[in-house]
Amino acid sequence: MTNLSVNLNKVALIRNTRNIGIPSITKMAQICINAGAKGITVHPRPDQRHIRPGDVYDLVNIVKKVEFNIEGNPLEASFMEIVRQVKPTQCTLVPDAPDTFTSDSGWDLTKDAEGLIPIIKELHDLGSRVSLFMDADIQQIRLVPDTGAERIELYTEPYATAYRDNQNLDSVWQQFADAAKKAQSLGLGVNAGHDLNLDNLARFCTIPDILEVSIGHALTAEALEMGFAQTVKEYIKILDPS
User: Can 124 be counted among the known catalytic residues?
Assistant: First the structure.
């Protein structure tokens, strides 16, 4: 079974539009865990536009029985400060610039490996597993073992786009399948994430031995669609008990 880790960034984005603490990040994490999620993912960015450092610290006690995955750019001092305190189950390292709208590419290890190696060693010393955010590029994936990382997370937006537009889907899926197979042959675990949703997930996970998918934006939007009607009905029950 591929594990689901729920990314709570978009829940935090909604919360941040008001100052009253709802929706609660810890409450939503507990709902996800109770529903069967095997992990919780957060990506605290320096501008704090969604998940904030305080949210990460608040989640520590909630996620003790599941994986706690913290994503971020380790070259940012604020990210490393957080993980040193929290010591999460897994750190997914992404090469986001501070002003990046959303994660949009994997590491270029021909340039970045040297700087990542001591960071990965420190994360291991903290007790955290390390996953590198990577494109489905076999030449880049070949370089991952030398960094010391145990896993990669495949950046799946190109697959999601091909699925949505019905353009070259078979060849794009095969590119990801080949990348996953190569990573696994090198002894790496394979995670995946970015724009996976209820429509495209099943096809993607026909790739063997995907260990984990991290899903946030689509899951939050789908939860609004699947749960909004029932919530409206609950309000109407109060207003019209007859």
Answer: no
Tell me whether residue 50 is one of the annotated catalytic residues.
no
3-state secondary structure of 15: helix
pTM of the model: 0.94
- 50, 150, 194, 212: which one is catalytic? 194
Asked whether the predicted pLDDT for residue 1 surpasses 90, the reply is no
- Would residue 43 show up in a list of annotated catalytic residues for this protein? yes
Residue 156 half-sphere exposure, CB side, CA atoms within 13 Å? Answer: 29
pLDDT at 88 over 80: yes
Structure tokens at 21: 């603490």
All structural domains of the chain, each given as residue ranges with its CATH number in brackets, are 3-239 (3.20.20.70)
Question: Contact at 8 Å (CB) between 215 and 4?
Answer: yes
Out of 50, 71, 153, 212, the active site residue is 71
